[in-house]
Amino acid sequence: RMFSISYIENKIWISYFHGLTDGVGRNRVYDTLMYYYFTFKNGKEYDSTGIWLNDGTMREGMFDDLGDHVYEVTPGFVPRPTPKDEDIFHMPETEEVDKSHKDAFVDEGTKMTRYHINIRSAEFMAFCKQNGHSPASAFQAIMARVLQEMYPSNTKQFTAALPVNCRTAVGLENTHRNGWTFAYQSVFPEQLKQEEAELGAQLRADLKALISPDQLKSTLNTYNAITAEAEKYSDFRDRLSFYAKNYTTFMGTYVFSY
Question: Beta partners for 105?
Fold first, then answer.
């Protein structure tokens, strides 16, 4: 199903196919539902900023698709290439290895290994502040150090796929549709020999470049060019074959999902 609503007693459950929207767009739908619920329940008006009103009032670009545009990039900008798969460290993803970790399980659908990691917020943010990390780069630094300790002979880079909201970068802040892509941040084993503050400064600057408007626009332009080429194939099987050759999701060492 692309979209479904179910309920039990006083609880409601709404689920979306990820192709329709992402977490930001989903929350905007929830905000609208809550606005009308409390307006009706409490019999008074609330601030409707950001709410899709049922009188037909819509914010500009509410249903814009990031795939419908070609984005202008600063002349001379050279986008950061995605690391080559053979240059990246990949964790052993056999079920036998995964079962040795009590907090891991193998997703039977994708065969990917998922680890649920809980970090104390206060201690984690103190670590970020002390070492000049952003939260995303701090997690990447911690993961790289842990993995290097687990596999000390490794010489390849650790690459994290970090989900990034592109709406502001491309000027489509109001869209309810999907507005994200991946940024791929790498840490090399030799970088781990540095003091944490030095590594933090490097990764923070690197992440800033990875999520710059020009970099995100370049990424989206590439995706959109592939989609435009795929639309030349009218046969379903031919189009699937084209996508299989040209649009393989790159995951790196791990995907950071939060």
Answer: 114
Half-sphere exposure of 85 (CA within 13 A, CB side): 4
CA distances from 236 to 35, 65, 231, 232 (A): 42, 22, 10, 11
Distance CA 176, CA 51 (A): 11
Which residue's structure tokens are 């869209």? 175
The H or E element containing residue 255 is strand 254-255
Contact 44, 64 (CB under 8 A): no
Q: How far apart are CA 50 and CA 59, in angstroms?
A: 8
What is the tens place of the pLDDT at every residue in 1-21?
788 889 898 888 888 888 788
What does the DSSP assignment read for 161-222? EEEEE-HHHHT-TT--S--EEEEEEEE-GGGGGS-HHHHHHHHHHHHHHHTSHHHHHHHHHH
| Residues paired with 181 in a beta bridge | 164
Q: Give the distance, in angstroms, between the CA of residue 43 and the centroid of all CA atoms in the same chain.
A: 39
Which residues neighbour 101 within 8 Å (Cβ) at sequence distance 6 or greater?
A: 115
Whole-model pTM: value is 0.78
